Each structure stands twice: as C-alpha cells, then as structure tokens.
Backbone:
C-alpha cells in the first residue's frame, strides 16, 4: 500500500470519523497495515462474512462488551468488518452502524470505530455521511519493484536490472498479495525468475480473467494475413504492434503508448476479424467486454462491476480489450431513467482518458449515428477507421484467402472475373460463396473447384447490398458526414 494511503488511514483513525471504508481486494495487506498503524489503546475485533453469526448479532455482541470496557485506560473498540457487501443493506445493520456513528461523534466517553474492508463498494444511502472511503490504488512501479526485490532477497536469487524492469512491467495491475503469490509459483516451477517467468505470469493472468466471469477470453487462430484488403488499417496496426513489442523502451524514449482504435463500418467486412488478428500480432491476450454483463440489480452494482472490469483489464495488461458493437453497449445514454448507462459511459470515458496502462482498446461499431459524439473526439482513440464494402481488388484477395484456407486455390480459377462480378458483396458473403462451392464440389466427388461452379453459386446468392439496401445506404450516408480514415488503401 502506498505511503499516502497509509497516512490517510492513520489520519482517519485519529479523527472523529466513525466509519472508514477501505476498498481493496488484499485483506492480508490491510491487516498488516492496520496492525502497524493502530494505536496501542485500540482493541480490534474482527468479523468476516464467513462467520457463523449474522453481522447484526456480531455488532450487538461487541457493543455489549464495549459497555464493560475499563474507561480509565481509554480503550477504543475498533470493529473490522470484512467483505460485508451482502449484509450491509440489512436495515438492522444500517441502524446499528448509524447508532455507533452518532454516539462516536457526539458522546465524549464513547470510544468505538468501524473499519469496513471490502472488495466492492456498497454504501447504503443512510450511512454515506458517516463514512470516509479509501479506494486503495494498485501498487505502482516503485512498490512492485520493492515486492520483487524483497522476494529475490527472501529466496536468495540475483536479478539483473533488465530482468527486474521486464518483470515489473508484466506484474502491473496486480495487488501486492497476488504479486507475492505469482512470484513464488513462478519460482517454484522454474527455480528462477527471468524472462520465462513473464510468460508464466501472463498465463496466470489469463486464469484470472476466466475466473472473474466478467470478460470473455477469446481464443482464435486468425492472423493479419487472413484479412483481405484493409491495407491502411493493417499498416497502422503493424506500427502500433511494433511499439507494443518494446513498450519499456518506447516509454523511456517518451513515445506515447498506443491507446486504441475505433473501427466503424459495414457489417461482415472484417472488423471482428481485425480485433482478433491484431491481438495475435501484438502477441497479447484478447478479452471482450460485454457491457450487458456488467448490469447489476443493486444501486451502484453496475458501476462497481465496470470498475472491477477495468481494473482487471489493467491487471492482465498488456492485452487487447475488445468492445464489440460499441453503439449497442452504451445504447440509451441520456434517455435511461435510472441514468446507469450514462454513468457507465462517463466512467468508461474517464478511464480511457486517464489510463496509463498497456490496455489497447479495439472498439467496433456499425452505426456511427448511434454513437455518443464523445467517442469521436480526438484524444479518446488514437485513430478512427471506416471499413467499407470491399473494392474489386480486395474482393479478389478475400476470395483467394478463403479458397486457400480450404486448399482449393488453383491456377485455373479466374479470380478477376469473380471479383468483378461480386460488387456489393461483403467479406462474409464472399466467404459464403467459397464455402458453398467447396461443399458442392465435395458432394459431387470433385477435388477441385472451377470458376463456373463459383460463378453459379454467386448467381444464386444475394449480397448484403441486395438484402439490406436501405441499411447500407443509411450507414454510408451517416459515415460520410465525418472525416474518418478509410481502412482500405
Ligand atoms: P459485424 O459488424 O456484423 O460484426 P464484422 O465486420 O465484425 O461484422 P467479421 O466478423 O470480421 O465482420 O467477418 C465475418 C467473417 O467474414 C470473418 O470471420 C471472415 O471469415 C469473413 N471476412 C470478412 N471480412 C473479411 C476480410 N476483409 N478478409 C477476409 N475475410 C473476411
């Protein structure tokens, strides 16, 4: 825990403040700090939600004991309540905490304080005015370095400054306790801490994502060479990947760490494919944020879920955070009566602006007119790209990629003719033609695909432009109003 946080805690403990709420996931660390910070006259009594008693019963029993305190010794009772977000809304608990708070603030001989330590922030309205909140930040570079140095001293291994730099980078976003745990598991499995530990640390982080249930961890095989066309976008991503592969050096040379990209445009044209291929080019995990999954039932729950999600993304960074269908994720801003979406959106924007971590955001969307204009402002994303329906040469490339994938590419296929005849088709339609032709050839017992077969499938297929003519037209019109870089060369 940082020095300023410990100082703040000590000052609240010293003051008349009746309830201190510490938002932190590392209870061990808070315990240690409390043991160091508390005054000798303070008597600590602890409760966790794993105890048999209900929280209300616990508070009542402690208050009964408090009556028997020997006042001459100026004891102060400090109740430490851990992980109580499920019981804090119980009206009895609220009434008890309120009573203790009022007594502490008004009665000179009343000596009791409450410290709540929780992984979530759950504060009933009735108690807001009595509570001081301490939101414990995750360890910064200096603290991580201290943890790593302490560890290497404990197990008696020598680390080069380069190895320390490298490890600090991968350990960012974890609590001190998690760092300790990961280092010891990495050490036990390899007998050393070096660049191989970094891979191990990343694997551990992937586990954290899966266990959290907040994100979807996307596994994929797509590479940048699987994308036909979109040359401007691919070139731009290649440059960012080059920075990502040497982040520490880039940082030292005062190069801005890539923040993210917004890819807008037609359906089925490779936006999702790009998110996957980019993360394989960046050589980092791809996690998908589903804003719908964050919505909670209780007041403040959704905001807390988003805070946890963003923290977790930082914990597993470097990573690519993919927000699919951005316009739907934050739909209803300004019009939802509860105001939750608006608050989530504000929280997300602030995080995007202030984040210093190596979380690269790839947001994808179809309909720009439904996007809050704040997303389109400079400074949020590094760049905005517009993906249109593929042009003739892109169609040729896409057809070739999908034929090659199925081992059906041969010199006799007239790709030029096919790409000329597929104006208005998107990538997904083109893939569909190849798939269908391959299936037909297989059922007819033929090993190869001919141009005629592909053309006959094409004649029987409808393109997205045929099926969704109005939608495509409207999308293109709305995108025209903005000055967005074309993804195609
Ligand atoms: P949506 O807006 O509907 O989510 P999208 O733009 O994200 O669409 P993708 O999911 O990337 O579309 O594309 C669907 C499939 O179509 C891909 O998995 C891929 O097989 C094929 N495809 C689309 N565009 C391309 C492309 N440029 N190159 C190769 N394949 C493509």
Residues:
């Amino acid at each position: 825990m940082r020095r300023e946080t410990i100082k703040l805690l000590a000052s609240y403990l010293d003051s008349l403040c009746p309830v201190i709420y510490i938002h932190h996931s590392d209870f061990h660390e808070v315990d240690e700090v409390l043991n160091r910070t508390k005054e000798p006259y303070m008597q600590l009594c602890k409760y966790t939600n794993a105890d048999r008693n209900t929280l209300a019963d616990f508070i009542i029993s402690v208050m009964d004991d408090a009556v028997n305190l020997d006042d001459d010794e100026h004891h102060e009772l400090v109740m430490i309540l851990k992980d109580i977000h499920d019981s804090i809304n119980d009206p009895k608990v609220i009434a008890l905490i309120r009573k203790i708070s009022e007594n502490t603030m008004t009665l000179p001989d009343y000596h009791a304080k409450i410290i709540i330590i929780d992984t979530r922030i759950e504060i009933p309205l009735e108690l807001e005015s009595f509570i001081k909140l301490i939101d414990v930040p995750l360890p910064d570079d200096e603290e991580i370095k201290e943890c790593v140095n302490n560890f290497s001293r404990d197990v008696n291994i020598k680390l080069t400054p380069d190895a320390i730099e490298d490890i600090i980078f991968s350990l960012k976003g974890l609590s001190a306790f998690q760092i300790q745990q990961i280092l010891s598991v990495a050490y036990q499995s390899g007998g050393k801490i070096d660049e191989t530990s970094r891979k191990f640390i990343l694997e551990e982080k992937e586990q954290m994502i899966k266990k959290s249930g907040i994100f979807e961890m996307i596994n994929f095989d797509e590479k940048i060479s699987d994308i036909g066309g979109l040359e401007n976008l691919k070139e731009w991503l290649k440059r960012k990947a080059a920075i990502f592969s040497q982040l520490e050096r880039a940082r030292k040379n005062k190069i801005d760490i890539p923040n993210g990209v917004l890819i807008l445009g037609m359906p089925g044209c490779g936006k999702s494919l790009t998110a996957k291929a980019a993360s394989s080019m960046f050589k980092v995990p791809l996690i998908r944020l589903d804003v719908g999954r964050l919505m909670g039932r209780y007041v403040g729950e959704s905001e807390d879920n988003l805070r946890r999600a963003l923290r977790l993304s930082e914990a597993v960074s470097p990573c690519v955070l993919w927000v699919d269908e951005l316009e739907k994720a934050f739909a209803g801003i300004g019009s939802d009566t509860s105001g939750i979406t608006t608050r989530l959106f504000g929280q997300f924007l602030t995080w995007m602006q202030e984040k210093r971590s190596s979380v690269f955001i790839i947001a994808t969307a179809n309909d720009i007119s439904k996007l809050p204009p704040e997303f389109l402002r400079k400074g949020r994303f590094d760049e905005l790209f517009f993906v249109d329906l593929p042009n003739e040469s892109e169609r040729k490339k896409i057809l070739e990629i999908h034929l090659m994938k199925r081992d059906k590419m041969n010199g006799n296929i007239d790709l030029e003719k096919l790409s000329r005849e597929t104006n208005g088709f998107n990538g997904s339609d083109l893939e569909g033609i190849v798939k269908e032709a391959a299936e037909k050839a297989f059922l007819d017992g033929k090993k190869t695909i001919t141009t005629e077969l592909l053309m006959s499938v094409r004649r029987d297929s409808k393109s997205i432009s045929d099926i969704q003519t109005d939608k495509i037209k409207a999308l293109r019109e709305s995108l025209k109003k903005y000055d967005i870089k074309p993804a195609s060369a």
Remarks:
- Residues 369 and 478 are 6 Å apart (CA to CA).
- The pocket of adenosine-5'-triphosphate is lined by residues 227-230, 267-273, 364, 366, 398, 401, 427-428, 431 (CB under 6 Å).
- The first helix runs from residue 3 to 14.
